[in-house]
Amino acid sequence: MTRSCRTLRNARDGWLGPRIAAALVALSAAGSPARATVCGTAADEFIAAEVGLVREWIVQVPFDSAAWRLEHVVVGRDLVVAQSRDGGVAAIQSAAVDGAPRPGSVLWQARIGTPGGLSRPAGIGPQTVAIARDLDVYALDRASGGVAWREQLGSTADAPPAILGDWVYVPMSGQIMRIPVNPLRTPSASPAADQKAKDEPGGRGSRRDRTAGKLAPEPLVRKSISGGGRVDTPVNGDENAIIWTTTGGQIVALERVATGWNRSEFELTATPVGAPAIRGRSGFAVIGKDASTPPTLARIDLLTTGGQRLRAAWWSPLPDRPDQGPLVSGDTVVVSLGPSGLAAYSAETGEPLWRSCVVGTIVAVGGERAWVIDEVGRLSGIDLASGVAREWLPLGCLTVPVINTASDRLVLASPTGLVVSLAPVRPAAEPGPAAGEPATPAPDATDPVDPAAEPAAADPDTTPP
Question: Which stretch of DSSP H or E encloses residue 45?
Answer without folding.
Answer: helix 45-50
